[in-house]
Amino acid sequence: MPKELSKDAILRLLKTKSSMKQDVYDRTLEIFKLLKTVSKDLASELGKEASKADKRITVQYTDKGEFEVELKVAGDTLFFHMHTNVFEFERNHLIRKSGYVKEDEYRSYCGQISIYNFLSDSFKYNRVNDMGYLIGRIFINREKHYFVEGKKQLGFLYSDFSKSILDKDSVRNIVEASILYSLEFDLFTPPFDAVRELRVSEILETSLNMKVQTGKRLGFKFKSEPDAGE
Prior knowledge:
Elements: H1 3-53, E1 59-63, E2 68-73, E3 76-82, H2 94-97, H3 99-103, E4 111-119, H4 120-124, E5 133-140, E6 146-150, H5 168-184, H6 200-205, H7 208-211
Antiparallel strand pairs: 1-2, 2-3, 3-4, 4-5, 5-6
Helix pairs in contact: 1-5
């Protein structure tokens, strides 16, 4: 390919695709800042109301930096994390088949905000071996259209990518749904055989509390994989 043609092709992609990705990043960051504000306000509201019923219950918001927020709700801690890159979906994904995306293929490029659920005690007691779970992912394009990949409250309510546009109310709904999902899933005891062995070094080196792995074992799966018992 002649040098001038190569240069033209590069410039064309810089002006279109690269510019589009910057737009997606800017919109995602804008929404993440809104999510911070919503989470902070919601934590204050829930904390005041919950403490009236039981002063032992705490709801706490912590800004962990530009791309991460921590929301502690009693025994559960949620982490909202914004990825700094832009993602495209594979060709057979439902998003790529929608008329909205077929009109403009760049509409399928999205930023991503992931939602993780941990046990609050894992951080309180520094149990570094405990497990956290990905419970949902928010995908946002440059026009602020979005969908949420997740389970139950986090999935079926926010699936119309062509019509769903993120605003303050929809962000609050997602945060509230994340809290509900986490609170409704209880901690299950692990199988006996999974915890029956323990090395002497694990007792001698550090607290047993830090070595015995704890997690909700939600069995969270994306896509169409069924959960045991469902």
